[in-house]
Structures are given as C-alpha cells and as structure tokens.
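Input structure tokens:
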C-alpha cells in the first residue's frame, strides 16, 4: 500500500488556506513510497486558494472586532468574478440582510470577517467561480445612547469613539430654556439583571473645563437632563 511521505504531507497542508475561500486544483510533485521498491515521484492535484482570493484585513482596523447589530449599514463588494458589484445593506430587526443569489444572511452578533467568510462560501457554492468578497462597516447605528429631558433635541444618537457627556448634550442641541446644568445624570444599564445604575454628573465643573468629570458614555447609556428650579 502506498503512503505519502511526511514532506509531501507538509506540502499538502501548507497549500491549504483556511477561511472558507473557494479553492482550485494545482498539480505538484508528490513522492510515493512503498517498502522494497524505489521511490516514485508522481503529480497529484492539491487544492490551493487562487492568488488574491482572500482580501487582506488590516489588523489595526477597529471594525474587525466590531459586533454587527440591528440598523448597522454594511457595504458588501463582490470584486470577482467580473463585472464587480457593490451592495449597501441595512441589518433588519431580525438580524439578517438580503444578498443577491444567496438570499438572507444572518449577521447580527457576528464580526465583519465572519460575515465576509460566510458570503464567500455561499456564493462559491454553485453561484460563482472563485468569488472574492469584501465586507465593510459603512454606518454603525446599532450602538446608541440616549439623551432625554430638558434638551433641544431629545432622542437616540449613534455612538462615536470617546463620546462624553458634554458631546452628548451638544449633539442634542444643548439645554432647553428649562434645562439645568445641575440636574444631569447618566442611567447606565446594569451588567446583570434589570434596571440602571444612576451616575450623578457635575455638569458645572465640566463646563468650566474639568475633563475628569466628563465621563465617557457606553452603549445603551441614557443621559437625563432635569428641569431646573427657578
């Protein structure tokens, strides 16, 4: 019985690219050995990924660790086969998107690379030959905070990096004529169980330039501005 040498086996493994991309067959020399007989070198078809089939991710890209949620907007580009096309899709309340050929794709709770791999696999399963897909986060709308009470524009707002109390109130148009800088607090969802943790905010100190009092908001925080006492 023939057996593949260790060197040949290592060549096989090094030719495989894990990540769900479509693969193609390439002929490479493989040494076959049988006890008592000379070594024979034959050509075997080894599946390897076609050059450029997997778009590279920048490790410094903060969106790689981002968890996709409802209302997020994704830009999905099919680069090959040509002609390329781009779809802009919004994550629906059930956590899915709809994409040509393959229909609904569950994306909520998944990362950008995971969604890219899934779409590539499904397109390559009978729809396209060696598809090259790139997925990018176009708008982050699932990460929100809220500003309510005596502000000009109460409502929900998309979370941005380093979103502080002062920036949040400014995005909400500032205090209304009844709002009080002494009546600002943050309601933060508890990690376990229900309810909120109330965080008192020294808005006066913040407005006087104290950065230590201008806390960074987290996803789901509610900024409440109370009416002043006149």
């Amino acid at each position: 019985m023939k057996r593949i040498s260790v060197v040949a086996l290592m060549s096989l493994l090094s030719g495989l690219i894990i990540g769900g991309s479509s693969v193609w067959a390439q002929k490479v020399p493989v040494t076959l050995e049988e006890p008592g007989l000379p070594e024979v070198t034959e050509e075997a078809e080894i599946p390897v990924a076609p050059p450029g089939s997997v778009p590279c991710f920048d490790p410094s890209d903060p969106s790689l660790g981002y968890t996709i949620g409802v209302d997020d907007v994704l830009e999905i580009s099919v680069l090959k086969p040509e002609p390329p096309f781009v779809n802009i899709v919004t994550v629906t309340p059930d956590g899915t998107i709809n994409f040509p050929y393959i229909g609904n794709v569950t994306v909520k709770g998944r990362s950008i690379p995971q969604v890219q791999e899934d779409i590539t696999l499904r397109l390559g399963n009978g729809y396209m030959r060696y598809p090259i897909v790139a997925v990018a986060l176009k708008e982050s709308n699932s990460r929100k905070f809220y500003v309510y009470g005596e502000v000009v524009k109460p409502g929900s707002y998309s979370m941005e990096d380093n979103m502080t109390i002062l920036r949040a109130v400014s995005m909400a148009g500032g205090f209304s004529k009844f709002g009080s800088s002494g009546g600002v607090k943050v309601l933060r969802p508890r990690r376990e169980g229900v309810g909120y943790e109330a965080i008192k905010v020294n808005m006066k100190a913040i407005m006087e330039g104290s950065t230590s009092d201008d806390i960074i908001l987290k996803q789901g925080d509610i900024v409440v501005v109370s009416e002043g006492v006149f």
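The first strand starts at residue 3 and ends at 4. The mean pLDDT is 79.
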